[in-house]
Amino acid sequence: MLQIEGAADVNTDWYLRQWEMGREPPCCAGCANLVYKPDRLGESSIVDAIPHLLKNGCVSCAPAVAMSLGHERASLIAAGGTWPEAKTAFSPVLERQDTAGMVHGFVRGSAGVGARGPRKVRYWHALMRRPDGSIEDVTEELKRGR
């Protein structure tokens, strides 16, 4: 969660700077035409800032959420809100997902260290909470990659 928050802070600042320079950057991963590539099971997500995502062309759930958080928070600040208000209004949420499938290689966590073969695997999916309490999956509309 700290990685998402850290990247969201960097992204918030990036959006504010872009707007100050008169630029209109993409508001979300979908508008940037990024392809959704989920992290491999058992691997931690790398949460990059927007410039790297735009260069790379693909995104997993955590950096997609950090991008959306950055845009929403920057929009609130640009409209006269404060940084603490923006951070409270829009926040990341991690939701546990379970999937049945083949685990290849060594996976730490619920599948057990060194587990191989068919197992129920738990992983986390990043989402964004809006000020009204609703939860948004910002990856829903993204093109899927492999």
Protein described:
The structure is a single chain. The chain has helices spanning 2-20, 50-56, 61-78, 83-89, and strands at 35-36, 58-59, 91-103, 117-129, 135-136, 143-144. With 146 residues, it is α/β, with parallel strands linked by helices. It has one domain (2-144). The strands form 2 sheets. The chain has a 3-stranded parallel sheet with strand order 2-1-6. The longest helix has 19 residues, at 2-20. The protein is globular and about 45 Å long.
Descriptive labels:
single chain, 146 residues, alpha/beta, three-stranded parallel beta sheet, three-stranded antiparallel beta sheet, globular
Question: Layout of SSEs?
Answer:
Elements (H helix, E strand, L loop, with lengths): L1 H19 L14 E2 L13 H7 L1 E2 L1 H18 L4 H7 L1 E13 L13 E13 L5 E2 L6 E2 L2
Parallel strand pairs: 1-2, 1-6
Antiparallel strand pairs: 3-4, 4-5
Helix content: 25-40%
Order of helices and strands: HEHEHHEEEE
- Taking the alpha carbons of the first and last residues, their distance comes to 24 Å
Strand fraction equals: 15-25%
Major sheet description: 3 strands, parallel
How are the strands of the biggest sheet laid out side by side?
A: 2-1-6
- As residue ranges, the low-confidence spans are 101-113
Please give the radius of gyration in angstroms.
Answer: 16 Å
Mean pLDDT: 84
What is the approximate shape?
globular
What is the number of domains? Answer: 1
Content-based structural category: alpha/beta
Q: Give the total of beta strands.
A: 6
Summed up, the helix count is: 4
